[in-house]
Amino acid sequence: MDCEQHESDIIQGLKIGVDIAIPFLGDEKTVRSTCHAEIDAGYEISLVAGESLRWLIELRRISEAIEVSGSVEGNIELECCRCLERFDFPLNLNVWEHALCVAEEDQRDSRYLDEYQVVGGELDLLPIIRDAICLAIPTKRLCSEHCRGLCPVCGANLNLGLCNCSSKPVDARLKPLLELKRRLER
Ligand SMILES: [Zn+2]
Ligand SMILES: [Zn+2]
Questions:
Q1: What distance in angstroms lies between residue 84's CA and the mean position of ligand 2's atoms?
Q2: Could you tell me which residue, 42 or 77, shows the higher pLDDT?
Q3: What span, in angstroms and rounded, lies between the C-alpha atoms of 155 and 172?
């Protein structure tokens, strides 16, 4: 990795020249590296230079495709949906995909548009790794199951302690309702 590279430089591709590295059926190659995943508010993922994630991928040439299997592990940083604090979420996932060797004239064919493809003898691992991370992000992103979230009145993070809102007198407009409730309870 280039030392002068800025830390948040987005990795544009992880291309492996598979036609040269593993030209024959059954040929195998192991590739590994590290990266860091940046996840924006819309949950788009960019891989950047870094070491928070380690990936190890085995490539194997099979009939008309490259089999891609391996693992991605480490941490990604997510934002808690209750308290909005960022927290480290551990990832340990397996990857198992196929990239099709498609003739150049067929690459935009609708049959192959949703497939990973080997283009010009190269396989780009970036979309495969990024998609695997994307699928592993939980839909309910909580820093802890017990997260107390934010006070709806003052916005204080209730994990750090109670705010004063809960001890404030009841809004005058709600008093008649409270009276009614008490009467019904009696
Ligand atoms: Zn939280
Ligand atoms: Zn409050």
A1: 15
A2: 77
A3: 22
